Amino acid sequence: MFETLPKAEPDAILALMARFREDPRTDKIDLGVGVYRDETGATPIFRAVQAAEERLVAAQTTKTYVGLPGDLKFCRLLGEELLGRPLASESAMVQAAGGSGALYILAAFIRRAAPATRVWLPTPTWPNHPNLFRGAGLALGDYPWLDRAGRALDFAAAAEALEKLGPGDAVLLHACCHNPTGVDPTPEQWAEIGAIAARRGWLPVFDMAYAGFGDDWERDCAGMRTVIGRVPEALMAASCSKNFGLYRERAGAVYAHTAEPSRRQAAQDGLEAVTRMVYSMPPDHGGALVRAVLEDADLAADWRAELTAMRERINANRRALAEALAARPGGQGWGFIAEQRGIFSLLGLDRAQVDRLREVHGVYAVAGGRVNVAGMRIGDADRVAAALLDVAGS
Ligand code: LMR
To answer: Residue ranges of the Aminotransferase class I/classII large domain (predicted)?
Structure first.
């Protein structure tokens, strides 16, 4: 039977990560996979997470099952941070295995509730989004995101497309720090998206993977909160990989919000039913760490302080790269890098340019020229700028 398997294309981001590891050059720079790096090139464990882990190991007495929805206290604390309010009786939730696990549970939940739903993804989007939604058996559509130059949001085009949708459609929205573009709506545009969703009756589906990496936690969550406040139902997949540095622990959660409390239990049952089918119960450790941090005022304050420092470094890197480009001949027109938010910018490089960037300059970027600005040491800004200008002119 295995001979009938279709050839699986390697995942471009993960393949690049492996290729970077194998590259013997000592001055290589990884702007590929979306992982935060500090000025030494390390991806640190948050101090608060480390302290929580020590406490957890000392206090834990069993590894028996937690239960089908996972750790609901973790889900509630994380959800309240993201929504900025107590989670009322209208919210169903389950813990999930990281952001991708959360998205798959959410996709399977949509399929269970309304199998004919079409899920609309922005163009471009994270390459795993189509896999996850199609893999759950849902039909896909796309809506525009970037303007012709590929630097800013074409809100008129996005809004026009979203106005054509209605009940039976679900729209995937990157809650902040859009991956791969770094291009987010303004608060006014988020309000307009909420108004369109409410008027047209489509289901907003949020992928929230980078809260805290953009402007600040509250502003990063504000657009999503605005939209959720305007619609009768919404879904959210949350990841703790980046903003708690828990990449390999696969900590995430899924939320189904309904303005009609009598539908909450059906949503909870539906989420638990698909979780049981996919992996029975989620892994506990990462969520337990997040819970331990958020439950403790001192650890939570330290986590916030470290997240703030990370965000400041990301935004300083953005400014340094834009300035290094601007200071070089032919380096005008890259100011958008400093304006965008999160760890990614999409530089619109073609395949040959991305290959040259990697092979000649040792600078790794994802296809299309997605760069992770957090992968760069600030002292490397000039070298990266020179490499980008070389390939952009090639
Ligand atoms: C990325 O976009 O690079 C990250 O979200 C890692 C991944 O799984 O693709």
So the answer is: 26-388
